[in-house]
Specification:
Elements: E1 10-14, H1 22-32, E2 36-40, H2 43-48, H3 51-58, E3 61-62, H4 70-84, E4 88-93, H5 99-102, H6 112-135, E5 139-149, H7 163-185, E6 188-194, H8 200-203, H9 208-218, H10 226-237, E7 248-251, H11 262-269
Parallel strand pairs: 1-2, 1-4, 2-3, 4-5, 5-6, 6-7
Helix pairs in contact: 1-3, 1-10, 4-6, 6-7
Bound molecules: nicotinamide-adenine-dinucleotide.
Nicotinamide-adenine-dinucleotide binds near residues 41 and 148.
């Protein structure tokens, strides 16, 4: 169902790898709501994923960029403004990767150049994206920038490993840069703290199946899906949320404020 909430808006969407990606669902919903956008991902992901199908379906241009490379980002933003025919109204940063997680290295045994790489991809890239947008003055007034986070930034989820620290950093960047973007350009910056979601990045976390079932049982509304997240993001890109900024917005069916639920209690009572 479309509400025409993003009619005429222009955006850049990072991180659509395959049809499970949160960014993929967001691109589909944003398209339905009437926006046009550029799709971008790391050059290597272009070869692995199926982003071409999404571009075809949504009539969008793909401009590859490694989100850790300032040079790539400068090119991406300049070209996006050209291709879309004007300044950018919305940006989705939907990027995360930890080499320590990928290679099964424990939090207590990190290899620090992997830690640094994961930080750069998952958190530093958000600063870089915003700095390039800011310096090129590429955002339209009352635009909206969103990045995706996870509650391990506030609470302990042992298997989330160094991604927990990356997410804490990401959320802090949203606040810090959001101040300058708000003050100087009337642009808002927020993070969405999303439920566990079965995507390539999500399923890469050890114990993901247990993790997602636990969250499902704990949340009064159940886990938020990738499509739910896409819908929430549409609202944050729309003109209906113009004064929401510097926030980390939990989108998790209520999980973040729960202590225990009947469904979880039941599991222990059965023992
Ligand atoms: N899946 C979950 O459980 C969950 C929960 C909360 C938050 N998130 C966050 O949502 C976001 C999207 O992840 P997803 O779950 O849709 O998984 P996904 O694997 O589909 O997306 C991750 C994307 O990051 C991209 N990426 C990696 N390195 C990059 C680089 N150097 N430059 C540009 N792009 C790069 C990948 O190509 C991929 O498209 C991430 O920030 C993730 O941490 C996911």
């Amino acid at each position: 169902m479309s509400y025409g909430l993003l009619k005429g808006k222009r955006g850049i969407i990072f991180g659509a790898l395959d049809e499970n990606s949160i960014a993929w669902k967001t691109a589909e919903r944003v398209h339905e709501e009437g926006a046009s956008f550029v799709l971008t991902n790391a050059p290597i992901a272009m070869r692995m994923g199926t982003i071409n199908q999404l571009a075809e379906k949504t009539g969008s241009t793909i401009i590859p960029a490694d989100a850790t490379s300032l040079e790539d980002l400068e090119h991406l933003v300049k070209e996006s403004v050209k291709v879309l025919g004007g300044k950018i109204d919305f940006v989705l940063h939907s990027i995360g990767m930890s080499v320590n997680v990928r290679k099964g290295r424990a939090y207590t045994d990190q290899k620090y150049d992997w830690t640094a790489k994961g930080w750069d991809v998952s958190a530093g890239s958000f600063h870089k994206v915003m700095q390039v947008l800011y310096k090129q003055d590429a955002m339209r007034e009352w635009g909206s920038i969103v990045a995706l986070s996870y509650m391990a930034a506030q609470r302990v989820f042992p298997d989330y490993n160094d991604m927990a620290d990356n997410k804490a950093f990401l959320e802090s960047i949203a606040r810090s840069f959001g101040y300058f973007f708000g003050r100087d350009k009337n642009v808002r910056v927020n993070t969405i703290s999303q439920s566990p979601t079965p995507t390539t990045a999500g399923k890469g976390v050890k114990g993901f199946d247990g993790f997602i079932s636990y969250a499902e049982k704990m949340s009064p509304l159940g886990n938020a899906s990738a499509l739910d997240c896409a819908n929430y993001t549409v609202s944050l890109f729309s003109d209906l949320t113009r004064k929401v900024t510097l926030q980390n917005l939990f989108h998790d069916g209520g999980f973040s404020n729960m202590g225990v639920s009947d469904a979880v209690m039941q599991v222990f009572e059965e023992e």
